[in-house]
Automatic annotation (TrEMBL), chains A, B:
Source organism superkingdom: Bacteria
Protein name according to UniProt: D-malate dehydrogenase [decarboxylating]
InterPro entries associated with the record: ICDH/IPMDH, IsoCit/isopropylmalate_DH_CS, IsoPropMal-DH-like_dom, TTC_DH
Source organism per UniProt: Rhizobium bangladeshense
GO MF terms held by the record: tartrate dehydrogenase activity
PROSITE patterns with a match to the protein in the record: IDH_IMDH (PS00470)
Amino acid sequence: MKSYKIALLPGDGIGRDVTDAAWAVLEKTARSSGFSLEAARFPWSCDYYLENGSMMPADGIDTLRSFDAILLGAVGWPRKVPDSVSLHGLLLPIRKAFVQYANIRPHKLLPGVQGPLRSQDFDILCIRENTEGEYSGAGGRVHQGTDGEVAVETSIFTRKGVERILRFGFEQARARRGKLSSVTKSNAQKYSMVFWDEITHRLSTEYPDVEVTSYHIDAMAARMVMAPESLDVVVASNLFGDILTDLGAAIQGGLGFAASANINPDRSAPSMFEPVHGSAPDIAHLGIANPIAAIWSGAMMLEHLGEAAAAGRIMAAIEATTARGIGAIPGKDKTDAITASVLSALD
Amino acid sequence: MKSYKIALLPGDGIGRDVTDAAWAVLEKTARSSGFSLEAARFPWSCDYYLENGSMMPADGIDTLRSFDAILLGAVGWPRKVPDSVSLHGLLLPIRKAFVQYANIRPHKLLPGVQGPLRSQDFDILCIRENTEGEYSGAGGRVHQGTDGEVAVETSIFTRKGVERILRFGFEQARARRGKLSSVTKSNAQKYSMVFWDEITHRLSTEYPDVEVTSYHIDAMAARMVMAPESLDVVVASNLFGDILTDLGAAIQGGLGFAASANINPDRSAPSMFEPVHGSAPDIAHLGIANPIAAIWSGAMMLEHLGEAAAAGRIMAAIEATTARGIGAIPGKDKTDAITASVLSALD
Ligand SMILES: CC(C)[C@H](C(=O)O)[C@@H](O)C(=O)O
Ligand SMILES: CC(C)[C@H](C(=O)O)[C@@H](O)C(=O)O
């Protein structure tokens, strides 16, 4: 029997609640699908930081490297540890160290879910660059604390980094409806974003079957609200992808429904799967977090591991659940009730 | 009789169409309000660039300095001149040279306008930093054209720049419903955005009557769609403000309804008023651009010049127009018909 080694990183706040839920669904699916999942759970989190002075052990990355995939809940608890410390100590280094350069986030409405838009008919796949750009972490502050203080933050884009994410976008568009939207802000950022546009333009000749359009980030944000049905695959930089995917989560009914995969397409290191939502400390451990985004992320993990049929079964169980109205309305159902419904729909 | 000298910069594409409309409304309003408006029209645009090799003359900024205000249509025509050239040659230098550090954009639904959201009940004032940050224009490219090419783009935030826009935000919040939302991405950008958050936090003690909340840009984008009614004044950096205000335009029914003011609060140089929309070359001079955003921007100009009653009359005329369904549905009415309706509602 095939077996996959999964590293569980529940992280902080509701990250723990939803990881438990996703894991229950994954285990049951595995049992009836003829493969097994073996989990190792790591307590790396803000609490861990308060005890140990770092978000993960010095050999944390090495430890994770031997796993087939990572399932993450959420990281961050600002009242305990500044986000700029917790995220740069756990989530962001994993994405970078394991070259998970493609962050994939599907945005569509699950049956029974009412989004905030009148328009209900869209199916967008956002692809976000996940390792460089505006999240390079380069910068500094001078004259700190004085009137003359200056803070700089430098976005770094490499040809390799931009080319590979755009190629990934073109491939995804080819496998879907053949439309790629590339998002920049080249009218205002004339180095990084003009560079991105140039590479988009050059690659487009290699994919004559893909219709590619460039948008500015502001226009794309408006389009996702005004005409989401016009979009297919959207590819964007680290920051722009971050913003657009929260917007995507919003139009699909809320962050409780937004799944994501941090993919290393070369499979030279494990990929990581996580709901788009954060740790939501205010509702942590109250049993009211919606686990659907985490369960959906688990399905994306199985798909990545080559268990597409099992992934499909989970998606069908999620859809059966929301179609019955369970988990479909933010705040209405308890985590356990939603999980139980997905589990029973798997039978 | 009071008289104001206005520099008209119609710019490109529909910028010309809507500036004409706004000017007609402004002139009529002035006549019946006991002041006069004197216009000088400057043809600075992409066409001007093609003829003269620059977007404006070398002494363009000096020329504009003697005016009481600037009314701008839109700048950019990518097929003629790259946006990164046209915008950096005209729009952005004016904002910076005249220290128009506060870009103000109101987002609410005009009567008769149906937004894309189910929620129709919001009144948001976005305040965008307009002179530095992610639009600093600092950066470069190395190893150009090779596999090893790297592009960097540096955001520069100064204490003075951040403090003054935040103060402006606090003051606006105080004059409205007392709620200020400050938008950053301090969990990922640990220099610039942490700096901004620190200054927000420090200033908040000076404004105990204002309730201030910090949001990450991704969460704010989602909130504008999920719960826009929860927002009052939103203050953000140059780039984040740009994105949020296009989103604001979207939820208020489209870019045809989004007005803006580039304000120099110290009045040491003219302020500039412009619709949020771009030049839309594909529909230029077809007579179908919606002039409401430009007319509304004209009202903001009168308000800034101290003619609040006249500004109010224009707003009432816009509202009477859209309430009758004219100009309320994107694409339905011609520029002239909408302008005529606003003009006649002024009587
Ligand atoms: C927590 C934060 C650093 C993270 C990001 O911006 O990447 C999150 O918002 C996400 O989208 O995964
Ligand atoms: C044209 C562009 C440079 C400009 C900006 O981003 O500032 C526009 O989008 C705006 O919002 O005024």
